[in-house]
Amino acid sequence: MSAVAAAPWVGQAIKRKEDPRLIMGRARYIDDINVTGQLWAAFVRSPEAHAKIVSIDTSAAKDYPGVHAVFTGHDLDLEAPLPMAWVPPGINVNNPPHWSIAKDEVNCVGDPVALVIGSDRYAVVDAAEQVLVEYDPLPVVVNLETALDDGAPLVHEELGTNKCHEWSLGGGDLEAGFAAADVIVERRVVNHRTAGAAIEPRGVLADYRAGSLTLTSSTQVPHFLRLFLGLQLGISEEKVRAIAPEVGGGFGSKLQIYGEEIALAWASRKLERPIKWVESRTEGMLATHHGRDQVAHVRIGATKEGKITAFHTTIYQDLGAYLMLLTPTIPSLGAFVMSGVYDIPAVQTDIIGVFTNKVSTDAIRGAGRPEATHMIEVCIDQLAAELGMDRLDLRRKNFMDPASFPHETALGVVYDSGNYPAALDLLLTHLDVDAIKAEAPAGKLRGVGFSTYTEICGLAPSRVTGPSGFGLQTGLWESAMVRVHLTGAVTVYTGTSPHGQGLETTMAQIVADRLGTDPANVEVIHGDTGTGPQGLGTYGSRSTAVGGESVARATAKVADKARRIVAHQLEAAVDDIELTEGKFSVKGSPDKGMTLGEIAGAAYIPENLPEGMEPGLEELAFYDPENFVFPFGAHACVVDVDPETGNVDVVKYVAIDDCGPAINPKLIDGQVHGGIVHAIGQALFERIHYTEDGQLVTSNFADYALPSAADVPSFDLDRTETPSPVNSLGVKGIGEAGTIAASPAVTNAVIDALRPLGVTYLNMPLSPMRIWEEIQEAKS
Ligand code: MCN
């Protein structure tokens, strides 16, 4: 074991513990895992966007060499359709049945209609092509903005409408706010459809034997998965074990209970064989949930002095064909922070959910908050232009006062912490706007764009989120177990389920400081419902603020017991035992102390312990926070636009973020890098595109333009650290912050560049073609 060399570990940019196995090919993803007797599965998917299933002839596929079985939707005798989506309390939704395998009707291209199972991975794909499905095509609706028109085709005829739900979240007197405004700006703001595009596609291995199900899946939520597998299949929960092995990215797209997971589990039970399926990239683009796809009508009013008086948005959300786990909830996450970093007396968000014949939308990194931030940050720039004010002066004029935190907004949401002027001040030390504009290369139009943001994350607390609308009584907490072994090595079990965030490192840092050991001696186990305590997964940047705090609390309990053992062994008072230089020692006598290994050695021998103390050194903690946490920051983007081609080059990007005290600055930087690239991708390149008849055009990475390292500059990052009062670590989330902040910074930069040509407003995606067309239009 390595010696304690450099405590405190929290705050240090140590390298990620998980990286050696990841970069040396030693990690085991779902595609690496195979079991004896395993069969393979392939799904037959609908080529029609909307159709009745007239008949399915499976005979040729069943006769195909190596095929064991072919199942259709009617064969699957499941307890119920796929899980009811979580719905904000008190909101009524139309929730059409969504079966793992379609029964009588398909509602989007890619809907599964049959499941082929056989002994060979490639033969089942060939056999799937032998399944003959007769469809009776129905009219298709793809366009969110016409789906509610009279006479529009209906996705679910039986509902009599494409509207799923309509509700509002607001606070303050909106009418009075707009009446007090001298200037009102209205814009249509588009947040187009994107994919999660994790590099590792989804995959499932279902193994039902002797009454128990083990399901390994590339998922972000193994504990939820176990719960729903049990409910869907009618298996008692303790007989289900869900395992998330190494997961190669999720970005929200694996925060789901997918029909493929349920169907494979059902088939494994039916055939009494393990069955595996790994999706192809095209299958993933067709059938893994998408995100965003909102069109908002935004109104913002201000006095001529620049005080914002009211902000109103009406969001139309394209739900796709069905409700999935969080589909109807996504805009509400944005609605909670719709007023952004500004003190606005009246704010209202109206949310209208609309069905279309496309794959469902759900959480993609940021889920609701990138959309909300985009709306307000782009419209602030529009308002500044209308008022003839400097866009940063307008922001400063409306920032919430740093002295007002915890700050209750007009909606009644209490932001835990914030200091927005400090973030903007720091940003400007990294960027001389006049100088950088003067350096524009010949023939290019240079623009600078800003975004000052906050977001709501650390998803919990149960008092707001639960009991959930799944018909289950569960809160949204997190738990952790910390075990010190006889040797002093430590194992941490967390209910969160990282898939690229580096939590094995940061959680080890949290533990190491509290037990006087080295992070190298701390192993973090996650993603297996069979080994750890319960948990609720990794999403909504909750793992550190909620999961990390539960780890800190369990560790504090262990440290407390360690202190009592040391006091007993050294015949000192418990209050006199302190942790210094890797030892629990007596105050004032650093030589008189015990290392964690020595304490653990004592902890397992009852005669070493104070009377009545149980042997062992391990503890469990559940943590349900009082509030969400609200990271914030200020971002700036510099672009060069080629007016001849419409091409945009991002030449500089500065990000100031505040996620409270850094556990590991290196990991934070990595998260911010990824987050910014994600948003640059949406702003400039990425777009899920369906034709009017519901065919997916962007079905692989040749057509769906993910940005590469060559498309982005080296980022200039810095931080302010405003501790959250919500948890003892003071931490807030960072996993989504870059994505939430960056799309308006890029968009505002492009608009800034094009203003001299008369282009004053643009919607994403800012493709060369769109920009070129806007330039031509402005010229004419
Ligand atoms: N961290 C830190 N100090 C802080 C706050 C966070 O060092 N003050 C560290 C954490 O300990 C962790 C990382 O930053 O190592 C991110 O932590 P957190 O913000 O708590 O976010 P989560 O771990 O809950 O991750 C979820 C978030 C989400 S919602 C998406 S989507 C996303 C993201 O993380 N998907 C990702 N980052 C991703 N990164 C990768 N590589 N792959 C994905 O799929």
UniProtKB/TrEMBL annotation:
This is Xanthine dehydrogenase family protein molybdopterin-binding subunit. GO terms for molecular function: iron ion binding; oxidoreductase activity. Residues 24-139 form the Aldehyde oxidase/xanthine dehydrogenase a/b hammerhead domain. The lineage of its organism: Bacteria, Bacillati, Actinomycetota, Thermoleophilia, Solirubrobacterales. The keyword Oxidoreductase applies. Signal peptide: none annotated. Keywords: Molybdenum, Oxidoreductase. It holds the Pfam family MoCoBD_1. It comes from the Bacteria. It comes from Solirubrobacter ginsenosidimutans.
